[in-house]
Design a protein that fits this description.
alpha/beta, Rossmann fold, six-stranded parallel sheet, 12 strands, lipid biosynthesis, glycosyltransferase, EC 2.4.1.182, lipid metabolism
Length: about 350
């Protein structure tokens, strides 16, 4: 017997490694195996496939990769049916994992299937809630508002808190208040689109006497790592977790996603950036009816962090938002009040132990 684990994002790999550690702590000694990244492998999960195979951003890139992804899912389904694990746990990447689990069910797998960090059905593609209800025995969302939405829609869901509650120390003042963390993201296409904008911003920040520091996050593909190193040039570079850089710096600008939650937990102001390909942006602009894209803004239903999307994502506008925060005391007071409120909504400690316990019940 064993447990199969699969993720497709760097942030998902962190969640998966936390779960693997909690399973071991609870006394689970059987094999853990699947598709993982560096952290998942370091936590003891046997990496039959690398999660970097799913590092795709947007519809146009996904379409080009469809044949390869179909073959990958087929290999995974065959291996699961051969090994017959006592549970299957997937993390993030719904465009890959939901079709994979559907094929797994059709292939006869009857064991429990769990979705850790399920898709944002509260935001768009809301019919996916049907898949979560019918294909998965348990969903483990990260935020209470997600859990409430799933329960209201008849989906099996459990929540106690976000794992960052365990791993983040209380916020402290920045040790380098004049430094600005520049966070280009963890996906190849994300980095490709944001790096030129952030390099331009870095020059403008230096003109104002501020110190730009680029993040080189662990788990990046070699091509993304090389791209960052090539473009950073003379600017500061931090090799390590974004959360550690955020604690040093006075403010930040970077890709939408997990790092915005890390900035919130660090009590740092951040300008959230998003640039997509033309097809992805057309879909977002026409079919996604959301006032905000970053989780802190969604949590309190107001603009805590400025969001510069697509054509507005340019260095001049980013600089303007950072300068406004830095120079306006009333903006700073409001932002940090909202961030404190967000942190109060993150739930209790022990999320990974809770996940392991709920999975062991199935």
């Amino acid at each position: 017997m064993s447990i199969f684990l699969s993720c497709g994002e760097v942030s998902g790999d962190i969640l998966l490694s936390s779960l693997a550690g909690a399973l071991r702590k609870s006394g689970y000694t059987r094999p853990l195996w699947g598709m993982v990244g560096e952290q998942g492998a370091a936590s003891g999960v046997e990496p039959l496939w690398k999660s970097s195979e799913l590092h795709i951003m947007g519809l146009s890139e996904a379409l080009a990769a469809l044949p390869r992804l179909y073959r990958l899912a087929d290999r995974i389904v065959r291996e699961i049916c051969l090994r017959k694990p006592e549970a299957v746990v997937v993390v993030d990447s719904p465009d890959f994992h939901i079709p994979m689990v559907r094929r797994l069910r059709k292939s006869g797998y009857s064991g429990p299937v769990v979705y850790l960090s399920p898709p944002t059905v509260w935001a768009w593609r809301k019919r996916r809630v049907i898949h979560l209800r019918e294909l998965f025995d348990l969903n483990l969302p990260l935020f209470e508002f997600e859990h409430s939405h799933l329960v209201r829609n008849g989906v099996s869901s459990a929540w106690i808190g976000h794992p960052m509650v365990d791993t983040f120390p209380p916020p402290v003042p920045p040790s380098e208040p004049d430094s600005v963390a520049l966070l280009p993201g963890s996906r190849d296409s994300e980095i490709r689109r944001l790096m030129p904008i952030l390099v331009s911003l870095a020059r403008r920040l230096e003109d104002l006497g501020l110190k730009p520091v680029f993040s080189l996050a662990p788990g990046l593909s070699r091509s993304s790592r090389d791209s960052v190193l090539e473009e950073v040039g003379k600017f500061g570079l931090y090799r390590g977790e974004a959360r550690d850089l955020l604690r040093r710096c006075g403010m930040a600008a970077g890709a939408s996603g997990t790092v915005a939650v890390e900035a919130m937990m660090s009590d740092r102001f951040m300008t959230v950036l998003y640039r997509a390909g033309s097809l992805e942006w057309f879909i977002y602009d026409n079919f996604i009816r959301l006032p905000f894209v970053s989780i802190p803004n969604v949590m309190v239903r107001r603009k805590v962090y400025p969001e510069l999307l697509q054509d507005r994502c340019k260095s001049s506008e980013i600089l303007s938002s950072l300068v406004s925060y830095r120079s306006n005391r009333s903006i700073r007071r409001r932002v940090h009040g909202d961030l404190e409120r967000c942190r109060s909504m993150m739930g209790s400690t022990g999320a990974a132990d809770f996940w392991a316990e709920r999975i062991s019940r199935l």
